[in-house]
Amino acid sequence: MRVLPIWVMASAAASALAADAVPAYPAASAGSSINQEKSMESAKRRVPKVPPVVVGAIRYEAMRGARGRGFAQNGGIVEAVDTKTGKSLWTAVIYTTVYDPHEEADVQDRYITEMKLSPDGKHLQIASENKKSYLLDLSDRTVAIQK
């Protein structure tokens, strides 16, 4: 058996890929594991960037990466932050995401898409990817679905 230097093997592989432009996969039947794996793949998506709402010395933010902070879900959580100290004052779960254990969790996350102060200045009006609108009472932190 003749051993080729690594650069020769890499060059040959690159030439083969350039010629085909698409890597060759074994043929698969309709019920094969290859087709099942492809159907389970999903494109990663970006989390909406929602501008915070500032009222007095409090900044209300749509929390990003909530799971990393101990929550059961990534989206649907508002955090109140002291603008002077940057410390979290409280959080409120606006809605609950129920996850299907057979699907990837990140594709099931539903995020807040918009927040604004209500005309009376006492509530946050919140819109989400789940196509619902909510009102967060800033005094007692209760949440109501807006109709």
Short description:
Helix content is 16%, strand content 28%. The strands form two sheets. It has a four-stranded antiparallel beta sheet with strand order 1-2-3-4, with no helix packed on it. The chain is an alpha+beta fold.
Q: Which key features would you list for this structure?
A:
2 helices; 4-stranded antiparallel sheet; 147 residues; single chain; alpha+beta; 8 strands; Thrombin, subunit H
From the N-terminal CA to the C-terminal CA, the straight-line distance is 75 Å
Share of helix, binned: 10-25%
Percent strand equals 25-35%
Q: Averaged pLDDT, please? A: 79
The beta-strand count equals 8
Strand order of the largest sheet: 1-2-3-4
Largest sheet at a glance? 4 strands, antiparallel
Based on the coordinates given, report the CATH architecture of the domain at 53-146.
Answer: Beta Barrel
Low-confidence stretches: 6-42
Structural class: alpha+beta
Rg for CA atoms: 24 Å
Task: Give the oligomeric state.
Answer: single chain
Inertia-based shape: globular
What is the number of helical segments per DSSP (H or I, 4+ residues)? 2
State the CATH class of the domain at 53-146. Mainly Beta
What's the CATH topology name of the domain at 53-146? Thrombin, subunit H
Order of helices and strands: HHEEEEEEEE
